[in-house]
Each structure stands twice: as C-alpha cells, then as structure tokens.
Write a structure and sequence with these properties.
Elements: H1 2-16, H2 18-35, H3 49-94, H4 100-124, E1 136-139, E2 144-147, H5 153-201
Antiparallel strand pairs: 1-2
Helix pairs in contact: 1-2, 2-5, 3-4, 3-5, 4-5
C-alpha cells in the first residue's frame, strides 16, 4: 500500500508539478556545471593524445548541433504557446459568464501556460556554451593583434574534456526545460478543455 502511494505521488508530481521538479533538477545540474571548471582532469592513461583530441573535437561539434536542434524545437513550441494563449483570451471573451468552478480551471490553464512560456524562453535564450578559444593578445597602443602558439596537447585535451562535460550539463538543462514546457502546455490545454466542457454542459 505504501509503495502504491509513493508511485501515485511520483505520478502526480511528474504530471502536474513538472515545472517544480525541473527547477530542482536543473539547479543541481547548474551547480555541477560550474563545479566542473575546478575539477582536475586525469589523462595519465591516455597514450594516443592526437586521436582523442580529434574525437573530442568531433563530439564538441556534435554538441553544438544538438543545442541548435533543441533551440529550433523551442522556437516551434513558442509559436504553439503563443497561439494557445491567444485562444485562451478569445474563449474568455466569448463566454458571457463563467462559474466559479470554471474560473478555477481557467486560472489553472493560465498558470500552466505562463510556466510553459517561462521554461520555453529559457531554452531560446542565448545560453552559455563552452568552446575552445584562440589564444590572442590585443595591444591597442601598438595597433597589434598577436596570435600565440597553440596550447600543449596535454593542456588542450584537458580543456576539451572539461568543456564537453560542462556542455553535457547545459544540454541536459535545455532538454529538461523543453520537455517541461511541452508537459506544461499539455496541462494547460487539458484545463481549458475541461473549462469548455463545463460551459457546454451547464
């Protein structure tokens, strides 16, 4: 019985309070992302450094593609959220009178769509993404820009490992926010459908 109650609680939290769960998980991921910067990278057992550098560079490019894909989905979802919000406004204008019970579902629908909007905006924002920067010095007084020699292979490998791990955390945060926005939009639609049903049956 206790296990069933726990499962029911998990179901309710994941289905109806997905925004809160996402906030909690993302906060933990965000802390981990910034802590990774201070980690030490052990590459003592890596012998073919050039091979691993090339592999990690390819993975970094793949991460950029994933980020772009998530952001593109966020743009499509933003359009869906905007259209649905307009439909909520039109429906509230259409109904002459709304009962207290129906008003409850209207408020719930608006709250869900607001949370979906907030989550989706965080996906579309210019999120910090980690990459390898060229080592350049700018001397304004001499009107000179100097490109330094490439980093040592060991240092480059260590930096690649660090930024890829940081990017993984970032991509998880973006994916979590996108998924939460979809669930919140769904809950908003369900609440509005209940509102419509109540007004049609009265």
């Amino acid at each position: 019985m206790k296990k069933k109650l726990e499962n029911f609680k998990k179901f309710v939290m994941h289905e109806f309070f997905v925004g809160l769960i996402t906030d909690k998980v993302n906060k933990k991921l965000d802390i981990e992302k910034y802590c990774i910067e201070h980690y030490t990278v052990d590459i003592n057992k890596i012998y073919e450094i050039d091979k691993y550098i090339e592999q990690l560079k390819n993975e970094l490019n793949y991460q950029k593609d994933i980020k772009k894909h998530i952001e593109n989905k966020g743009k499509v979802l933003f359009l869906a959220i905007t259209l649905f919000f307009i439909s909520i406004i039109l429906l509230t204008v259409f109904f002459n009178s709304i009962s207290n019970f129906s008003l409850f579902f209207l408020i719930v629908s608006i709250l869900y769509i607001y949370r979906a909007f907030r989550k989706n905006i965080s996906v579309m924002n210019a999120n910090e993404f980690y990459f390898i920067q060229s080592d350049i010095d700018v001397f304004e007084k001499k009107y000179e820009i100097k490109l330094r020699l490439n980093k040592e292979k060991n240092n480059l490998l260590e930096e690649l490992v660090t930024i890829i791990e940081q990017n993984r955390k970032l991509l998880m945060i973006l994916a979590n926010n996108l998924t939460a926005a979809i669930f919140l939009l769904r809950n908003s639609i369900i609440s509005l459908l209940i509102l419509l049903l109540l007004n049609l049956l009265k």
